[in-house]
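To close the chapter, one final illustration. This time we ask the reader to focus less on the individual chains and more on the assembly as a whole: which components sit near each other, and how the overall shape emerges from the parts.
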Amino acid sequence: MAEQLTPITVAYGDGIGPEIMDATLRIITAAGARIKTEVIEIGEKVYLSGNSAGIAPEAWESLRRTKVFLKAPITTPQGGGYKSLNVTTRKMLGLFANIRPCVSYHPYVDTKHPIMDVIIIRENEEDLYAGIEHQQTPEVIQCLKLITRPGTEKIVRYAFEYAKQYGRKKVTCFAKDNIMKQTDGLFHKVFDEIGAEYPELEKEFWIVDIGAAKLADSPEVFDVIVMPNLYGDILSDVAAQIAGSVGLAGSANIGAEVAMFEAIHGSAPRRANQNLANPSGLLLGAVQMLVHIGQGDIADKVHNAWLKALEDGVHTYDIFKEGVSKEKVGTKEFADAVIARMGQKPANLKHVDYSQAKEAIKVTLKPAVPTKMETIGVDVFLYCEDRNANKLGDALKVIEVNGLHLTMITNRGVKVYPDGMSETFCTDHWRCRYKSDKAVSYDDILALQTAVNKAGFAIIKTENLCKFDGVDGFSGGQGA
Ligand code: NAD
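The assembled structure is written out below.
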């Protein structure tokens, strides 16, 4: 009977992309990968042909059909108007989880951290990467940070399930809820809620700044770390670099239907077409892919042969070190060295074993809890060039509509009225908080805006102030 081949979509990308993709496909084919590739065009050429997304419509068809994407890095052309293909792919295909294993290979690859085996699980769709940005006044631009309960539940659940399935002991959460009490506060809260369902796993929480410092200094104390998008983006690069090289780390982007596998690094255009680049990042992405499509036996062979080549000191320029490495090789020769070791295991580095079939991690959302939502006021944002907070406050104080009255004005989040400090630096962007002692309607809010507008103030936007089950769903002002 003919062997069942799994169709996968492949993109060779730009810069070093084609060289490392060739090497990767050659290695996994030599290991016996049961795959059939469909090649799509993405990246620089597509961008420069006038497609601002960098991916042609027929490429989406292939991705939706195969649901598995092995992608080499691409070059995003400089200048405005070109959208990040990575962000587009992740969001359009709902690839909510980004998994980046960051491992050190001491003493074969030079590293300051001999014991490091950290899995970074990064939320992939939300946070500041929603890409909702507006210039609101000549001086002030806003980027909306969106953290949602379902998005957070999905990534946190994924992290705990991953830890359970891969025999990990501890899940750590990084966030900054001492400052962003609402958004990062929700991330932390959901982490605690879902973590309580996994008594067998150790749980810990770090404020991201000190957590990042600890990760850079003592990565050996971490196991699985889950974080919102931006922190995860930055810290997974840091973690990969301190493990040895960004050239060594692969990454999986997992959605409910489709999954994408890649190296974490970019297209390194200066290294292109010289047979120099390290194909390891993409190869380890391909290993994650093989596990994902149920070919753990092949993943095993590839990963162990690769570890043996590293251990034998066969190194590309980026990890080559006199006295540590034995042989400096190019991309092609490195691939040959891995293929020559197929079937072997490393003698000293920990070998991998993917023989236990891994079930696809399914994340189910908790049923939505009915929530009482009540509007009790509105933040009216004004553009005003005059930096006199007291003058502005006194003029707005006299406007009162259906119980909505001015309670404070902030500038960049700092309370400047009433009782502001003369030292506080002010921009042309003012948040004027109108609250009521009882619930208000949207008509009340519109009537208030009409009154503010008629009084000659330039409204640039509003945000409703709501209570959820009696709890304020908005932040106060600093110094308020
Ligand atoms: P980069 O990751 O391409 O390169 C950073 C440094 O690491 C360079 O010194 C490079 O030589 C080295 N390096 C990277 N990968 C290597 C490898 N496999 N072997 C050996 N050395 C390697 O980052 P960059 O220079 O900031 O970006 C270059 C381009 O890549 C930009 O157009 C950027 O938009 C794009 N990019 C794409 C992706 C992606 O497609 N996933 C990710 C990041 C950057």
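Residues 16, 20, 73-76, 86, 246-247, 262, 265-271, 277-278, 281, 318 surround nicotinamide-adenine-dinucleotide (CB under 6 Å). The radius of gyration is 26 Å. With these observations in hand, you are ready for the problems at the end of the chapter.
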